[in-house]
Write a structure and sequence with these properties.
The chain has one domain. The chain starts with 25 loop residues before the first helix and ends in a 5-residue tail after the last helix. It has 12 helices and no strands. It has 391 residues and is mainly α.
Length: 391
């Protein structure tokens, strides 16, 4: 079909429900989690409540999108079950629209800056693009921040592992020194004692001096070993905190990446910049189309007729199907539409399932926390009521 499978859409109102997701900044998230790690189990309840509420809101937004896609499937079924004479009327109108679009395509051949598919996509979401641009920018910025922080946390974990290996090596050397020094000192004392006995000479002072040196070195060794053990425990604590934060950040990463990939797939783009470019080219082409359309209202009239006909027979969103006139004429095109909707619905199901798992995990953690800290029961009850969470 020509690029102007879409020209009709310039004059038709279209509303597409967009899912909207809000994300906490990763720096705020990390700061909050680091503070939480230094606090008690009662503060962990607040984090778990946040996790449950965030997952619940995510699922609500995703289900709105899922219902919209399901509604498209219902429209397909309604169209496919129409009486043959009605189907023929729809096909006839769609063919006329295609003919006029082809004429306009020839007129705009030199201005065909983007594909027909991209033109139709941009036209369908034109009113929501300001919000889409903002959403994609937030998601892409979040993606970069999360990757940066994951890299930072991975480096911190590796640094602490290196520190622990270094400490273990120092402790091993210290133990070896203690063994060698102790053995040497013992042999020296025994030797001096034997010489004193054989020569009937008093060597008490040298022996006492050696024992004093041994005692001082032993004390220094014990203190040094304890200091190394303390440093090792501190390093382990830092490594565990880095791992803990990595696990929490990965939850954000999965949700953010899943949403970003879904939107990329939905709009058939690879970045926000690509969508902005498509929109720029779309505006140029629309301006040319409008100049051409000033001299004819046929395409608009046919589009309105098709919309009214579809609506009269129970199609809930006829505007969308006006933009899919090719699918109304060709079963192969309709199969492609179904496949695209199926892919979108599957991805939405996966995201809903993931957030449901997060919600249930949060509830489970709170229950386990109450078992370990029964004294928190009243506070947990108040927190759950504040967040409107039912156990």
């Amino acid at each position: 079909m020509g690029f102007l499978n879409t020209v009709k859409d310039i004059f038709i109102k279209t509303e597409i429900t967009e899912e909207s997701f809000e994300y906490e900044s990763i720096d705020s998230f990390l700061s909050r989690q680091e503070k939480r790690d230094e606090e008690g189990p009662d503060d962990d309840v607040i984090y778990k409540c946040d996790q449950i509420v965030d997952a619940t809101y995510q699922m609500e937004d995703l289900r709105v999108e899922y219902e919209m896609v399901t509604s498209y499937f219902a429209d397909i079924q309604t169209i496919e079950q129409l009486p043959q004479d009605v189907r023929q009327q729809i096909i006839d109108i769609a063919k006329k629209i295609a003919f006029l679009e082809n004429e306009t395509t020839q007129f705009l051949r030199s201005d065909d800056r983007i594909s027909d598919e991209n033109f139709r996509m941009i036209q369908g979401v034109e009113k929501e693009l300001t919000g889409v641009f903002g959403q994609l920018k937030d998601l892409e910025d979040m993606d970069m921040k999360i990757k940066r922080d994951l890299k930072h946390l991975e480096a911190e974990k590796n640094a602490q592992e290196y520190t622990q290996n270094s400490i273990e090596e120092q402790q091993s050397k210290l133990r070896l020194f203690q063994i060698i020094f102790g053995t040497t000192s013992a042999l020296l004392v025994v030797t001096l004692a034997a010489v004193g006995v054989l020569t009937e000479t008093s060597l008490l002072m040298p022996i006492l001096l050696i024992l004093l040196v041994v005692a001082i070195m032993a004390a220094i060794s014990v203190i040094s070993y304890r200091n190394l053990s303390y440093e090792f425990k501190m390093s382990e604590a830092k490594e565990n905190r880095a791992i803990n934060l990595m696990n929490k950040v990965k939850i954000k990463y999965i949700n953010n990446t899943s949403t970003l990939e879904y939107l990329y797939d939905k709009y058939k783009i690879k970045s926000l910049r690509e969508l902005e470019y498509l929109y720029e080219q779309y505006l140029i082409m629309v301006d040319e189309v409008r100049k051409y359309q000033r001299s004819t209202g046929d395409l608009r009239e046919l589009s309105e007729n098709l919309t009214k006909l579809l609506f009269a027979y129970g199609v809930k969103d006829p505007d969308i199907w006006v933009k899919q006139s090719a699918a109304l004429m060709d079963n192969r095109e309709m199969v492609e539409v179904k496949h695209s909707l199926n892919v979108r619905r599957q991805k939405l199901r996966e995201q809903i399932a993931y957030n449901e798992e997060l919600r249930l995990s949060g509830l489970k953690d709170i229950k386990e926390m109450l078992k370990a800290n029964p004294e928190l029961r009243e506070q947990v009850r108040r927190e759950l009521e504040m967040y409107h969470i039912m156990m």
